[in-house]
Amino acid sequence: MGVVDSSTLLDLFDAQSPGHAKAKARLAKGTFTVTPGVLSEVTQAVRRRAAMQGLDGAKAARDMLAALRSLPGYTFAAQADDAGIAKIYASDAGLSYVDAWGVWLARKSGEDLWTHDAAQARAWRRLR
Q1: Are strands 2-4 and 112-114 parallel, antiparallel or unpaired?
Q2: What are the DSSP calls for the chain, one per residue?
Q3: Comparing C-alpha atoms, which of 126, 82, 122 is closest to residue 105?
Q4: pLDDT of 112 strictly over 90
Q5: Order of strands across the sheet that contains 112-114
Q6: CATH code, domain carrying 13
Q7: How far apart are CA 116 and CA 99, in angstroms?
């Protein structure tokens, strides 16, 4: 079980990414949790990347989201504690609010945090 960051999901849906095989293996292992913030980041990145290739970015993002939601281990994390997330966010200038949300959720749930973001991984190790 793990809380998944945008970096892992972007690797999953990019077969050319050096992290693709690792992301695919991780997400095939069981349940994984995704926050709304991560979904926002990933859909925006997929839209932008597809558009840069002359493709329909909105369709690419919708297709990616449908594929993600169809994975057997997908879990949507609707809960959040703004004060708790804001505390983590304020404690580390290297984190985005979405990254702090992932750290908070991993701490709260006791799950691992699956990220390729060095600042987020460092914050999670420091706070768990």
Answers
A1: parallel
A2: -EEEPHHHHHHHT-TTSTTHHHHHHHHHSS-EEE-HHHHHHHHHHHHHHHHHTTS-HHHHHHHHHHHHHHSTTEEE-----HHHHHHHHHH-TT--HHHHHHHHHHHHHT-EEE---HHHHHHHHHH-
A3: 82
A4: yes
A5: 74-76, 32-34, 2-4, 112-114
A6: 3.40.50.1010
A7: 11
pLDDT of amino acid 30: 83
Compute CA distances 109 → 32, 77, 86, 104, 112, whole Å: 11, 10, 17, 9, 9
Q: The whole model's pTM is what?
A: 0.90
The b-or-e profile of 33-60 (16+ CB within 10 A means b, else e) is bbbebbbebbbebbbebbeeeeeebeeb
Residue 20 belongs to domain spanning: 2-127
Domain count, the chain: 1
Q: According to the model, what pLDDT value does residue 128 have?
A: 81
pLDDT tens digits along 57-104:
999 999 999 999 999 999 999 888 999 999 999 998 889 999 999 999
